[in-house]
Specification:
The complex is a heterodimer of chains A (202) and B (202). Chain A is mostly helical and 202 residues long. Chain A has 2 domains: 92 residues, no CATH class; 95 residues, Tetratricopeptide repeat domain (Serine Threonine Protein Phosphatase 5, Tetratricopeptide repeat, Alpha Horseshoe). Chain A is 75% helix and 0% strand. In chain A, helix 6 runs antiparallel to helix 7 and helix 7 packs antiparallel against helix 8. The model of chain A has no long low-confidence stretch (mean pLDDT 84). Helices cover 68% and strands 0% of the residues of chain B. Classes of the chains: A mainly alpha (202), B mainly alpha (202). At the A-B interface, helix 1 and helix 3 of A face helix 2, helix 4, helix 6, helix 7 and helix 9 of B.
């Protein structure tokens, strides 16, 4: 047998390409031939080492494996967070649009006849606050109306101040503040009906 | 560490070892990343050792642990796998220090000492030599043997991957030469390191 034929036999043995009979015959030969046995043993160790090194590189270059339960929890948590954020933004857009509509529908700048009393100092103060709204300056309107908000119940524009403050908060998309002022008006003779309608829609 | 807790960890590692032996790569991936803490533990204990040497020793020690498990050389554990790897790191660092002629004492274990049997020590010593030998293999032999033994490619397919070879005959001849040279070189290396091939049971 030539050296190449011996090597072919070793390769077939190492690569498990021998039939059962061939393998048994070769192993028998190994038991009786020390030199051949040494060659096979050496080559097997080297081939195994190459295989383990290849596997080791593949395994350790992979990212750290997360335990399945932790991975599952993370997926659920991130999905829930994404859904929550999505719903929050969609809901906010819808509510803001609704508040803009309610503001536009309900805003009317009063004439002297609509607001009680004569053109005195109190009326002027109140009208100045309302005109900010007409000029699309809701922040200034809010500041001016808040100054009047603290006035006592016998103040002639007591309900009107709350009504326009509610409209201002609608314009500013402050839902909870708007609701607060509207709730103060539910029993008002003039604004009660309108306040209830808006509260139902908010 | 409490003895009961330690024993529980050894039992858990025994199950893990069985899984790795059966080819569960995820299990080894988990072990590898868990044991990476050894790098910082060793670094904090031996400040004078370069961190690159510690990292290299950790990588080689993990590789040796993997090879010994897969080859069935590590069956019944008498300590934790992390201790087993740490112990091999000590061998490797001692080896690196001896070759660079640095006089650093690294005799003490940084964590619990693994109770190696003489057989364990023989297996580790053998793996260190084999690992180094395979890593030093050069092209074209390395590529030819990897493609032939690991990827199961035929010589004509290997020929298409190595443009430096003009014919099938040339690559077959080179392959036989490589196998002969590497086997003989490996036998000499084992002899130089006083390793008896047949003490390393296959």
């Amino acid at each position: 047998m030539t050296e190449q034929e011996i090597q072919d036999n070793i390769d077939n043995y190492l690569l498990n390409k021998m039939s059962v009979a061939e393998k048994a015959a070769f192993e028998n030969q190994l038991d009786n031939d020390g030199e051949l046995k040494q060659k096979v043993t050496l080559q097997k160790i080297l081939v195994d080492e190459m295989l383990y090194q290849k596997e080791f590189k593949r395994i350790t270059q992979r990212k750290k494996v997360m335990p399945f339960a932790f991975k599952q929890t993370m997926v659920i948590a991130w999905s829930a967070a994404a859904i929550f954020i999505g719903v929050f933004f969609i809901n906010r857009t819808v509510v803001n649009k609704r508040m803009d509509n309610l503001y536009s529908l309900n805003l009317s700048i009063p004439t002297y006849d609509e607001v009680r009393g004569e053109q005195d100092v109190q009326l002027k103060e109140f009208q100045n606050a309302i005109f900010y709204l007409k000029n699309h300056q809701p922040n200034q309107a809010k500041d001016a109306l808040l100054k009047l908000y603290a006035k006592p119940k016998d103040y002639p524009y007591y309900d009107a101040v709350r009504w326009y403050l509610a409209l201002t908060e609608l314009k500013l998309h402050n839902k909870s503040e708007a609701k607060k002022y509207l709730n103060e008006l539910v029993d008002s003779e003039v604004y009660g009906g309108k306040a209830n309608k808006i509260l139902g829609k908010l | 560490m409490e003895k009961e807790k330690f024993n529980k960890q050894v039992d858990a590692d025994q199950i893990r070892l069985q899984r790795i032996y059966e080819g569960n790569e995820r299990e080894f991936n988990r072990l590898f990343y868990e044991c990476r803490s050894l790098i910082s533990i060793w670094h904090s204990r031996y400040r004078s050792l370069p961190v690159e040497d510690i990292e290299s020793a950790f990588s080689d020690a993990s590789m040796i642990c993997y090879s010994n498990i897969r080859a069935g050389k590590l069956g019944l554990l008498s300590g934790r796998l992390i201790d087993y790897i740490s112990g091999i790191m000590r061998y490797k660092l001692y080896d690196i220090n001896a070759s660079t002629k640095k006089l650093i004492s690294i005799e003490d274990p940084v964590i619990t000492d693994y109770p190696y049997t003489p057989e364990d020590e023989g297996n580790i010593k053998m793996r260190i030599v084999v690992n180094k030998y395979v890593n030093q293999m050069k092209d074209p032999c390395k590529t030819i043997l990897e493609k032939f033994y690991l990827d199961g490619l035929s010589y004509d397919k290997i020929l298409s991957l190595l443009p430096n070879f003009s014919s099938l005959r040339a690559i077959v001849t080179r392959s036989y030469k490589c196998k002969k040279e590497i086997t003989e070189g490996f036998a000499t290396t084992l002899k130089n390191n006083d390793i008896d091939l047949y003490q390393y049971k296959n």
